[in-house]
Amino acid sequence: MIRKAFLLPIFFLIFLTSKPFDSNARQYNSLYWMKGIPQSSYGNPALAPQPNFFIGLPVISSLSLNMSNRGFMIGDVLRLDMYNEYYWDNDNLLNQLKPNNHFHGSLHVDLLSFGLRHKDSYFIFQVTDRVELNVGYTADMAYLLVKGSDAYPSNMLPGDFIGLGTDYHHYREYAASYTRDWSPAITTGIRGKILAGLAHTAVNYESMHLQTDPSDGKRKLHADILVNSSNTSIPRILKGEELDDGHFANSSHAVDYLTNSNNLGAAIDLGMIIRPTPSLHLGFSILDIGFIDWKEQAEHVRITGASDFSGIDLQDMFEGGFAENFLNHADTISYDFDLVALEGSYRQTLSPRIIASAAIDLSQRHQLALLTQGFYYNDRLYPSASISYYARPSHAFGIIMSYTVANMNYTNIGFGFNLNLGPLQLYAVSDNVLAAIQPYKTQLATLHLGMNLVFGYRPQSGRPLHGW
Question: What distance in Å separates the CA atoms of residue 55 and residue 74, rounded to the nearest whole number?
Answer without folding.
Answer: 40
